[in-house]
Structures are given as structure tokens and as C-alpha cells.
Design goal:
The structure holds 2 protein chains of 2 kinds. Chain A is an alpha/beta fold. Chain A is about 30% helix and about 25% strand. In chain A, the strands form 3 sheets. In chain A, strands 6-5-7-8-4-9-10-12 form an 8-stranded mixed β-sheet, sandwiched between helices. In chain A, strands 1-11 form a two-stranded parallel ribbon. In chain A, strand 5, helix 4 and strand 6 form a beta-alpha-beta unit. Chain A starts with a helix and ends in a 19-residue tail after the last helix. The C terminus of chain A is likely disordered. In chain B, the strands form 5 sheets. In chain B, strands 15-16-17-18-19-20 form a 6-stranded antiparallel β-barrel. In chain B, strands 5-6-1-7-8 form a 5-stranded mixed β-sheet, sandwiched between helices. The longest helix of chain B has 21 residues. About 5% of the residues of chain B have low confidence. Classes of the chains: A alpha/beta, B alpha+beta. At the A-B interface, helix 2, helix 3, helix 4, strand 6 and helix 5 of A face helix 16, strand 13, helix 18, strand 15 and strand 16 of B.
Chain lengths: ~290, ~550
């Protein structure tokens, strides 16, 4: 039986000679080139995102997945790479992306309406090649739906980007790509940072300010960013250019979003009207 | 100085056969006239051999079973003539438009580029066949001799200086294209060849046939001398096809489109040009039912259009007919013509081909042609407005963005990137140094990500003293532990106004809270949301979440 198998194997190898180096060889590469994520803590943790491999980032909402995505996009577009974002639920915010440093002209944004469209769009973009960074954002798709994607879909994606310079990033709520991913990062929620004025502090303000305490002090509190925690769940590769510097989970402090630029300006000057477009808002009362 | 005359025998037939490759090598008769009085106006050699003659009625011609009968197409003849001119311009800038089926190219000074005159003649015949035209080429030092030789002698002919009269002597006298009366007279005299005409005394010929007789005599001797009249160089690339039966299926249509695109691209290649844009024009079949439906609604009168026009602008000049066909097909799939097609026309806006090479040390980027194809497929998948590059609009209106066509930076700017490889390498080097020291405090924080809910999710917000105290949405209810606001914006009061007040809220959800489709994490948790009160809709909504 074994001799038959060996003969068959040699025949297959012979027929594929010149087209495929080792059809039965294990193709998992150990050392790959990685790129900066834009977040030093994650780069120190994982050595960056690997090229020609699938990277998976998962975590619950508000855990910082989008922060990592925007940082990576900013980092890649700054290096003049062409990036693509497949947005499964049309939830990408260009304003905060631009504030994060993403060069929007170098970003191809595909606004999908569900999982199936997203997977087909990802297939098209990955198979054509040439993109430096492709992100498939399934963060807003229900985990039970993403769970139904067959494993061979992720395997196909992984094989499609192999031997290319593409960084393929997958964002989800749960880990689904399993062993198809060369790097798996888990993001965890942490409390947000709030800035408060001296007046509000005197009234007992701070993180977890009582709304009642702020009754007469609007704009005494400002969202100052959030704290994130990233933990590496799985790493099958070794970076050849940015070595891994730490092992444990890392904490990341994220700054204000692009949405908060005007608010920060208003807050700093303690003025409600920093812009002529803004006007006084009457208390609407309890509304549905 | 040599001139090359290019002649297309059976031009009317070849113009039709050029658009229908299946007719090549078959007996073809072209009919024209007012229906039902169609008569044969042109036949190719095979059709003539089986007995079909000019002037024969269509019904008579149809009796000959192997013959294929087609209607005369002025549009295809015009396109074939343009292709013939392109063939001339492919080798020489000085081309004379001698007749619809004949052009003359000046070969002076082309030896260094294309080789000997004989080689040029063979190349012209070969290029002609690529353009779908079976051409006869004759090269001579005399323009008229070259034209006559091309009309009368098959294949490729090189006439050396001094041999003109000898080579022309065997040509039939109708090659000189005399008037029918003179041709009849010459036939009565028994003059059938140019040699016989040249042998007649010119004085007597002048006395009997006038100046026309002298002109024919000079032509027959190969002694007519004149200068080349260069045609104005045209960059008009247009191909048309009229269909006998209306086509509705995209598969059949793409087959015909492919043929037209092939012809168009061959012509562009002959002129060393590429297409920057492709314009598509369909004449649509009149549909009695649809017209009736439309006429029943007075407001929809304008919808009755018999034309379907599309222009496809390409990011880079392209002359690959297969690629163009794929693009056109994908666009037609997403926006099909509303009725069956009876006539189609394609025209190309020419441009110089892309010749620049990307820098060796620049990051890889998709091939522009492949990217265009991928974009067309994506548009087909998700819709035209959902693919592109986002651009922010100069307004405070939330989510004011527009999608622009995604273009590679080097294509858009026509030059290299803002940050060359050197800058990238410098950044990497700096980052490496950073990792060795690991001093995160010296680095700016990453910006907090934001996820937009499109459209806004309706929410119920309970206020206390003007501040949000509890938020519930999509079956999830939580306590506000921190809030920042109200951040009021309004604008565009003159059109589509908005008036909103935003709050950044940190909401604590207890473990007992019902899970939403966005979240499946167990236990109590906090979420950062941006909620807003819309004064116009009188309601609260979730704009998005900080993630």
C-alpha cells in the first residue's frame, strides 16, 4: 500500500514539475516580513502585521478593533501603499479615519450590505492582488452569522495572499479563522478616559460623573479617549524585521476620535460656541 | 521617391465581411435598394463564379444556395474606409485618400524605419489582413501607376522605375475607370487592355474621345504625373453594426460587441494609440406594448427614448479588446438597455498609450487595467455608489461624505508618490530604534476609532436635569455613567436642514441586559456611544460607537 502511495506521489510530483515546487510540502512559512500597525504596543507584542498572511483581530464592541484598524490604515497609507476596506455593515467613518491619519485617496472603500457581499468583495480584491493592505471588517455582523462561514473560505483567503505582499486583516467579534490566521489578537474593553474641569471636580465630577451634579455645568466633561487591551492569542510566524518584544497582554491608551476635535476646542475654551454653526440647544426633556 | 497604393477589391463586400468573420471565404452578395425591390450591388469573386451578377434581384440571388446575402451598410463602408486610412497612416504621415477603396502612402524617408519598399508593401498587406481587409498593394515611383497596379494586379507588386508601361499593358482597360460611354466605344474598337490603348495614336484618340481620351492614354502608358494630395489626419475611431434581428440577450450582444471592439482596437493599434474612453450607442427596437404603456402616462412621455448611450471613461489608456469587452459587459449588466437592440455603434476617444514604468522601489500597487476590471465587478456586486474613495465635504453635517472614483495615486497625479521609498525607509528605521528603546510615552496616542450606524439607530433616552441618565436601544438598556454634551450643530436652513445635539455617553449594561446583534459578550460591560437628539425628527438616535 505504501509503495503504491509513494509511486502515486512521485507521479503527481513529476507531472507538476516546473509548475509547483513541492505539491505535498507544508507551506507554512515561519519567518515573514511584517509591517507596522501604527500602535507601538501591538508592534511590540506581535512584531507587526505579517505580509502574505491572514491576521485576525477580534473582540466585543468598544474594545478598540476599529482603533487598531485605523492605525494600521494610517500607517500603510503613509507608506504610499494602496489599501482596501471591505465594510460589511457600512460602518466606516471617514472623518475619524482622516483624523487618525488615513489618506483617504489611497483607500478603496467597499460598502457592503451583509456577510455574503463582503466575502465576495474580499475574494475579488484578494484574487486580483496588488493591494498592500486589505481589511475585511465583519465587526458588526452577528457572531452566529460569521460562525457559519465555512473554514475553507478563510483558508482560501489565506492561500490567495500567500506569496504576495498583501496584509490581510480580519475584524470580528469572535475568532473564526482558527488556524488559517497567522496572527490572532484579542481586544478587550477597558473604561474610557474623561476630562473634567475644576468646577465639575469640585462638584464631585470625574469619570462616572453624576448627571445631577452637572445640571448647571454643561461641557464640564469631555471624552478624552479610551483604554484598550490587546492580547495575542495565536502567532504562527516570526517577524524578520520587527522582532517581538513582549509576551503578555498590552494596554493601549487611545486619544480622542476625529469626531471630538471641535468638542475639544470648545471644551478647552469653556465656550459652547466655538463655531458659528453651533447654537444653543434647549433641553428636550425625556424623548423617545 | 516611391508611393504605395493600397486597394481593397470588392470593397462593398469586404466592408460587410470585415464585421462578420464567418463570411470570410464564402460567396457573398450585397443587396441594396428600396424594399421589396432589392437588387445585387456587389459580389465577391466566389459569388461571381457561381453565377450571381450585379443587378440581379435578391430573390434570384437567393436561389444560389451557397451564397450569403447581406444588405449594404454605408456605416460599415465608412468604417472600412477609415480603417484603410488608418492602415496608410500606420506607416506614413502623408496619405492620400484616392477613393473609398484606395489610398496612397508616400514612402519617402521610411527606409530607415521599415526597411525596403518591398518589405513595406508586404507589411501593409499583412496589417491589412489584421484590420480585416484583404488588400492589394502596389509600390511605384508614379502615383497613378501605383493606383492602377493595385487595382488591376493581385497581391503585392513592386514596379521598378521604367517598367510602368510594361506592367500596366496587361491590365484590362476598365481599370482606368473610364466613363461607360468611352468604355463602350473602346470595346467596339476591340481595345481591351491598357497596352492596346497605349498603342493607339494620341492625336486620333483626342479627335475621337476628346481630352478624356488623352488622359486615359497617358494613364495607360504610365506617364501621368501628379503630386500627392495628403489627407487631413483623422483620429476618429467609430465602428457601427446594424442588426437584421433585434438582440436582447447580453450574451449575444457581448459577442457582437467583442467583434466591434476587436476592430476598434486593431485600428487603434495601427495608429499606435489607445482608448481613453469608449462611447456606446444603441438604437433600440420600438416595443408596441412599452410605447403604449408610456403614452398612457403623460408624465412619462420623455421616457420613450430610442437611444441608449453610455460612455465608459478609463483610468488609463487601454487597447486590449478583451479587457474592454469585460468592462463593457459588467457595466451593461449593472445598467442594461431597456429594450432590444437593432443597431450598435462604438467610438473610442484616442489617447497615447501608457508608457511610464513605476519605480522599482515603490510599494506594489494593482495594475491599473486589472484594478478597473475589479472595480467594475465590485460595482456590479455592491452598486455604483458603494465603491470608491471617500472624500469629506466641507460642512459640519454629520456623515457628509461623497464617494469618488478610486484612482491610483500615480495615475491621478501623473507622477510618483508624495513619500518616496527613502521616506518610508526612514520611518521604518526610526520605528526600529523606537522598539529597541520602547518608550511609548514619546509616541502620540492612536486616535480612538468610531463606527457609524447608517442610518441612526432609534433610541430611548431618559433625562434627568437635562442630562442622559438611561439609554435603551434595540432591546438593550443601560445606565449612563458618564456623559459629555450637548454638542449642538445645525445648518443648511435653506435646504435640507439639520438640527441636532450630540452626547458622548459611557453606558453601563448589566449582565441581565438583553444581548444585541452587535454584542455577545457575557457579563456586565460598558460601551461608549455617541447619541444625538434630532430636533427635526423629535427623537433620540444612536450615531455610532467608539471602538
Amino acid at each position: 500500500m505504501r509503495s503504491h502511495l509513494a509511486t502515486l506521489r512521485s507521479q503527481v510530483e513529476l507531472s507538476l514539475a516546473g509548475r509547483m515546487a513541492s505539491p505535498f510540502g507544508y507551506r507554512d512559512r515561519k519567518s515573514v516580513e511584517t509591517v507596522l500597525t501604527g500602535i507601538p504596543e501591538i508592534d511590540a507584542l506581535a512584531g507587526g502585521f505579517p505580509r502574505g498572511a491572514l491576521t485576525e483581530i477580534y473582540g466585543p464592541p468598544c474594545s478598540g478593533r476599529t482603533t487598531v484598524l485605523l492605525s494600521a490604515l494610517a500607517s500603510r497609507t503613509a507608506q504610499a501603499e494602496v489599501c482596501a476596506l471591505i465594510d460589511a455593515r457600512d460602518s466606516f467613518d471617514p472623518r475619524s479615519a482622516e483624523a487618525a491619519g488615513v489618506e483617504l485617496q489611497q483607500l478603496l472603500w467597499v460598502r457592503c450590505r451583509g456577510l455574503e457581499q463582503s466575502l465576495r468583495a474580499a475574494d475579488l480584491l484578494i484574487q486580483r492582488g496588488g493591494f498592500g493592505f486589505v481589511a475585511l471588517d465583519l465587526s458588526d455582523i452577528a457572531p452566529e452569522t460569521v460562525r457559519q462561514v465555512p473554514l475553507n473560505a478563510w483558508f482560501r483567503f489565506r492561500r490567495a495572499v500567500e506569496d504576495t505582499a498583501t496584509v490581510l486583516l480580519l475584524l470580528e467579534q469572535e475568532s473564526n479563522a482558527k488556524t488559517c490566521a497567522s496572527l490572532v489578537l484579542q481586544m478587550k474593553r477597558k473604561p474610557a478616559n474623561w476630562s473634567v474641569t475644576a468646577a465639575s471636580t469640585a462638584n464631585g465630577g470625574g469619570s462616572g460623573i453624576s448627571p445631577h451634579a452637572l445640571e448647571c455645568l454643561p461641557h464640564t466633561c469631555l471624552l478624552d479617549g479610551s483604554n484598550l487591551e490587546a492580547e495575542m492569542r495565536h502567532l504562527r510566524i516570526q517577524s524578520i524585521n520587527f522582532p517581538q518584544a513582549c509576551n503578555g497582554p498590552v494596554s493601549i491608551a487611545a486619544g480622542r476620535s476625529g469626531h471630538d476635535g471641535d468638542k475639544a476646542q470648545s471644551f478647552a475654551s469653556q465656550s459652547i460656541w466655538s463655531l458659528s454653526a453651533r447654537h444653543a440647544f434647549g433641553s428636550p426633556g425625556s424623548q423617545t | 521617391m516611391f508611393f504605395a497604393a493600397i486597394h481593397i477589391p470588392d470593397f462593398i463586400v469586404q466592408a460587410v465581411v470585415r464585421g462578420e468573420i464567418a463570411l470570410r471565404g464564402r460567396a457573398v452578395a450585397i443587396v441594396d435598394g428600396t424594399p421589396p425591390l432589392w437588387s445585387v450591388v456587389a459580389v465577391n469573386r466566389k459569388a461571381a463564379r457561381i453565377g450571381i451578377g450585379l443587378g440581379m434581384a435578391k430573390s434570384q440571388a437567393a436561389q444560389f444556395t451557397p451564397v450569403k446575402i447581406r444588405h449594404r451598410s454605408p456605416a460599415q463602408e465608412k468604417a472600412a474606409h477609415e480603417a484603410l486610412l488608418d492602415l496608410g497612416w500606420s506607416i506614413s504621415p502623408r496619405v492620400e485618400d484616392a477613393a473609398p477603396d484606395t489610398v496612397v502612402a508616400d514612402l519617402a524617408g521610411l527606409g530607415a524605419l521599415f526597411g525596403s519598399e518591398e518589405k513595406v508593401a508586404h507589411d501593409l498587406a499583412e496589417h491589412g489582413s489584421i484590420l480585416g481587409l484583404r488588400a492589394r498593394v502596389a509600390v511605384a515611383t508614379n502615383i497613378e501607376v501605383a493606383i492602377l497596379a493595385a487595382r488591376g494586379l493581385p497581391g503585392v507588386m513592386l514596379i521598378a522605375p521604367g517598367e510602368e508601361a510594361k506592367r500596366l499593358s496587361a491590365l484590362p482597360v476598365h481599370t482606368l475607370r473610364p466613363s461607360p460611354e468611352i468604355l463602350e466605344t473602346l470595346a467596339r474598337w476591340g481595345v481591351e487592355t491598357c497596352g492596346a490603348l497605349a498603342a493607339l495614336p494620341v492625336i486620333h484618340l483626342s479627335a475621337r474621345l476628346g481630352q478624356e481620351g488623352v488622359r486615359l492614354h497617358t494613364l495607360a502608358r504610365g506617364a501621368a504625373v501628379r503630386s500627392l494630395v495628403p489627407a487631413k489626419s483623422s483620429i476618429y475611431f467609430h465602428e457601427e453594426m446594424e442588426l437584421d434581428d433585434a438582440v436582447e440577450e447580453l450574451e449575444s450582444l457581448s459577442f457582437l460587441l467583442g467583434r466591434l471592439l476587436d476592430q476598434l482596437c486593431e485600428r487603434l493599434t495601427a495608429r499606435s494609440l489607445s482608448a481613453r474612453a469608449i462611447r456606446l450607442e444603441f438604437d433600440l427596437e420600438r416595443s408596441f406594448e412599452k410605447d403604449l404603456q408610456c403614452s398612457a402616462h403623460p408624465g412619462r412621455q420623455k421616457l420613450i427614448s430610442r437611444k441608449f448611450e453610455k460612455t465608459f471613461t478609463l483610468p488609463v489608456p487601454v487597447r486590449d479588446s478583451k479587457l474592454l469587452l469585460k468592462l463593457v459587459r459588467l457595466r451593461l449588466q449593472s445598467d442594461p438597455p431597456p429594450a432590444a437592440i437593432i443597431k450598435m455603434a462604438l467610438s473610442a476617444e484616442p489617447d497615447r498609450p501608457r508608457t511610464t514604468q513605476r519605480g522599482l522601489f515603490l510599494p506594489a500597487s494593482p495594475e491599473p487595467e486589472k484594478l478597473e476590471l475589479t472595480m467594475a465587478r465590485l460595482v456590479n456586486l455592491v452598486g455604483n455608489t458603494n465603491v470608491g474613495s471617500p472624500q469629506l465635504m466641507d460642512t459640519h453635517r454629520p456623515d457628509a461624505i461623497r464617494m469618488e472614483r478610486f484612482r491610483l495615486a500615480q495615475e491621478a497625479a501623473g507622477s510618483h508618490r508624495k513619500k518616496p521609498f527613502g521616506a518610508a525607509a526612514k520611518n521604518i528605521s526610526a520605528s526600529s530604534k523606537f522598539y529597541s528603546s520602547l518608550s511609548p510615552s514619546s509616541v502620540a496616542k492612536p486616535a480612538n476609532g468610531f463606527r457609524f450606524f447608517r442610518p441612526g439607530v432609534p433610541a430611548r433616552v431618559e433625562l434627568r436635569g437635562g442630562f442622559p441618565e438611561r439609554v435603551s436601544f434595540q432591546g438593550l438598556r443601560g445606565e449612563v455613567v458618564a456623559a459629555s454634551g450637548p454638542w449642538c450643530t445645525s445648518g443648511d436652513w435653506w435646504q435640507d436642514p439639520w438640527d441636532q445635539a450630540e452626547w458622548d455617553v459611557e453606558v453601563h449594561f448589566s449582565a441581565a441586559s438583553q444581548k444585541t446583534k452587535w454584542d455577545s459578550s457575557p457579563g456586565a460591560w460598558c460601551g461608549l456611544y455617541l447619541i444625538y437628539y434630532d430636533a427635526r425628527q423629535q427623537g433620540w438616535f444612536l450615531r455610532g460607537t467608539y471602538d
